[in-house]
Every structure is written in C-alpha cells, then in structure tokens.
Automatic annotation (TrEMBL):
PANTHER family: 4-CARBOXYMUCONOLACTONE DECARBOXYLASE FAMILY PROTEIN (PTHR33570), GAMMA-CARBOXYMUCONOLACTONE DECARBOXYLASE (PTHR33570:SF10). The lineage of its organism: Bacteria, Pseudomonadati, Pseudomonadota, Gammaproteobacteria, Alteromonadales. Residues 124-190 form the Carboxymuconolactone decarboxylase-like domain. Pfam families: CMD. This is Carboxymuconolactone decarboxylase family protein.
C-alpha cells in the first residue's frame, strides 16, 4: 500500500485564489495571487482558474478577479519579478456539435457515468450549457489539469452558501479523478486557515457525506 501524495504547495495555493475570487474579496485575492505566483503557479495557470470562476460565481467576479491578477502581475514586474507565462491550450477548442459531443464526453468521464435526471429533462437548456460551456469550453482547455480545476472548483463552491449540492457533486468528481480523502482534507485545511471557517465546514460536511455513502478503499 502506497501513501497518497500530498498536494503540492502550488496546488495548495489554488485554494485561496479560487475561494477569494468566487467570494469577490479582491483585497485578500491580491495577497493570495502574490503567494500563488511565488508558489509556482504560472500566469496562465492563474488566468485559467479565474476564467473558470465565471461558471460558478458569474462573469462579474471572474472579470474583477482577472483585473486584480493583471494588476498584481504588473506590480511584480515593476519590482523586477519575472513570472513564468505558462502554457496555452495545446489544441483548438471544438465548435458546434463537436463542442457538445466533447463536453458530454468530458462530463461523463469526470462524473464516472452519464449525467442525467428530471431537472435536465425539465430545463434542457441548462443541460446543454453545462455540457458546452463548462465541460466543453473550460474543461477542454488542457493547460490546467483536471485535478487542479477540481481543487479550484471545490474552493469556489465552498465559499458560496446554498451551493452545497454542487459541492457534494464535485467532491464525488474529485475522488473519481483520483484525489484522495487526505488530499481533499488538505483543501479543507486551506479553507479553514486561509479563507474562513464556514467554507471549511461546508466542504468537510460534503466530504463526510460522500465517504459515508461511498467509503474509500486505498489499494
């Protein structure tokens, strides 16, 4: 039996960045961005996290967060700090029917099965938007790993009261991708120490509920 790998300092830095961006706390985001760039996040890594915020907290907070990042990068450059730009997506994003097909495949792989239900039958537009915009447009951008995207997603959802069902769903996705309870506990610890107690409690409750119904067996 091998011990699970701990989150890297770079991955741990994703937690407060994603949380403060989704919360709209730009003063604390400024500090978190500085620390994240120092911890090894590239500029493009960080852009990807902040663009993804729009899917969970809306365009206004995503745009404000990106503006904060731009300011941080410019300030660091003026101080003589040269931050790594980082990678762009390795291939063009699909369009039209191909985007829907790719997004559906990504969603199915992330969730570990086909996602369907009465809500999507009742409002098929939201089903299509999830598949095309979130799992197609965003999760097809391969310059940020799905592990990193899920760490960011959990932090975003944890700071949004009322998003507990979605937080529960993404705990399941994270574990389906191979993130361990120990690694998710590190995310929760980051929320508790760097963000706020309430967000940590929401994430801990979601993890506990998931493990209660689907106990984790490390082989």
């Amino acid at each position: 039996m091998t011990e699970p790998e701990p989150l890297t300092s770079r991955q741990q830095a994703i937690v407060p960045i994603a949380a403060f961006a989704a919360e709209g706390n730009l003063a604390k985001l400024d500090t978190a961005l500085e620390q994240g760039l120092d911890a090894g996040l590239t500029i493009n890594d960080t852009k990807e996290i902040l663009v993804q915020v729009y899917a969970y907290a809306g365009f206004p907070r995503s745009l404000n967060a990106l503006g904060t990042l731009m300011s941080v990068v410019e300030t660091r450059k003026a101080r003589g700090v040269t931050d790594e730009i980082g990678k762009l997506p390795s291939h063009p994003l699909p369009k039209g029917d191909a985007l829907l097909s790719t997004g559906t495949a990504n969603q199915t792989q992330l969730a570990g099965g086909v996602v369907q239900g009465p809500l999507f039958d009742f409002a098929p537009a939201i089903d299509e938007f999830l598949k095309t915009h979130l799992f197609g447009d965003i999760f097809s951008r391969d310059n940020l790993s799905w592990h990193d995207r899920e760490i960011a997603t959990l932090a975003m959802l944890a700071v949004l009261p009322g998003a507990e069902p979605q937080l529960q769903a993404h705990i399941a996705i994270a574990m389906n991708l191979g993130l361990t309870p120990e690694q998710l506990t590190s995310v929760i610890t980051g929320l508790k120490q760097l963000v706020n107690q309430a967000s940590a409690e929401r994430a801990q409750t979601a993890l506990n509920q998931h493990l209660e119904h689907q106990p984790y067996n490390q082989e």
